[in-house]
Amino acid sequence: DRNQNFLRENNARYQFHPMIHPMLSQAHPPQIIVAGDGCRVTDIDGKTYIDGVGGLWNVNVGHNRPEVKQAIIAQMDQISYYSSFAGTATPPSIELSALVCGMADVEEADKIVFSANGSDAVETALKLARQYWRLAGEPGRYKFISLKNGYHGVHFGGVSVNGSPYYRGAYEPLLPGCTQIDTPWTYRNPYSQDPEELAQIIADLLDREIRHQGPQTVAAFIAEPVQGAGGVIVPPASFWPKLREVCDRYGVLLIADEVVTGFGRSGSMFGARGWGVKPDIMCLAKGISAGYVPLGATVLNRRVVSAWYQGITPEGFLMHGYTATGHPLACAAALAALDIVIREDLPGNAARQGTRLIEKLKPLADSSSIVGEVRGKGLMIGLDLVADKVSRASLDPSNGIAERVAAYARDEGAIVRPAGSTIILSPPLVINEAECDILASALTAAFARIEREL
Ligand code: PMP
After folding, report:
1. In terms of CATH architecture, what is 31-61+345-453?
2. How far apart are CA 341 and CA 348, in angstroms?
3. Which cofactor does it need (predicted)?
4. Protein residues whose CB sits closer than 6 Å to any atom of ligand 1
5. The pTM is what?
6. ipTM, 2 decimals?
7. Which CATH class name applies to 69-343?
8. How far apart are the C-alpha atoms of 446 and 425, rounded to whole Å?
9. What are 39-97's pLDDT values in tens digits?
10. List of residues 6+ apart from 29 with CB closer than 8 A
């Protein structure tokens, strides 16, 4: 019909899509998704798929949950928006601030700053870390250290601490004083194949980097508990406890970017909790509102917040906040989404289904000549595509094989995400065994087809 023709003709005409060259998106227009239900989505041609990417790591509770819809409508019946800048607040933001501070894993969670995206949550964390040191009487602490392969969003602060030069190149010069150390990546590193030895080596690298920069100049270290966009890289179990020790040795703040891992995705309520560690600052987004409405949040612990309570000075005002800070519809949606996460124990389901799905996919590392490793934690799963299994050299992303795997999986009824030389799976956390099996067989068939063509 007319509207469908309009959508097809204008798809990829005006939108400059994130992280894809406009000439490529015009040649291969995006698939138009028109409806969703639980772990399934339907495209404009009426074909239904298992959603293997869960939006973008975020639709934890599944698509079109009536509880979330009702919460948004009920709030719209009251008031859709009011600002947090006029000495005013709305009930959902107050309720959500108490709920998230009660759940969060920072030591004595004390304050939360709401925003609209993960990138905002990271920007807030970096700015507040600097402001903390200023208030604490050490304004010389302005530097940030992070991990190569890390991903922290698209604002200038986040881009400055992002690991891959790929995200930075076109936007330099960036924040001064940002450096990266190697990722504790068991599959690819020049140091050790032994996970615990590797964890110690990377912790020592951080210690060395802090001393090299001068501890009195370093504000914070930021990392994801499990790296997502960098290719689903799970650190050795002892790495985060060692990170905490090194940061404490020099008073450096530890920021956990839990934008992906927060609220169950890696099989525990928070990723840092999975490693038994409490960061000083947590960045949250995505799963907090399950993608229904954009929402970001940054949680600060008592140590950080105490710097603001030595008296009222001009430097202590939070000169940071967004029009959308505390947006009532977003906070109402988040309250309903988190209620589902807790009530249905979605972290537990993510752990169980994730383990099962990884077991089902592991045989691909033998049957396919291009799958080097199947890895993951909870429902963060990556299939590492290699040019050569012995050297573990990555498949050249520009040859488009990951995109072909994804296209073939789509033919088999599953949407998966090609990201460089990794195929990423991050389905809704409500996924059941039957749906995991469909996902696994779609991928198995897609790799078999690639194998015949290679
Ligand atoms: N941090 C991490 C760990 C992320 O994975 C992302 C987005 N994938 C961000 C920050 C940025 O979030 P957003 O896209 O909502 O700005």
Report:
1. Alpha-Beta Complex (3.90)
2. 10
3. pyridoxal 5'-phosphate
4. 117-119, 122, 151-153, 224, 228-229, 257, 259-260, 285
5. 0.97
6. 0.99
7. alpha beta
8. 14
9. 999 999 999 999 999 999 999 999 999 999 999 999 999 999 999 999 999 999 999 99
10. 8, 11, 12
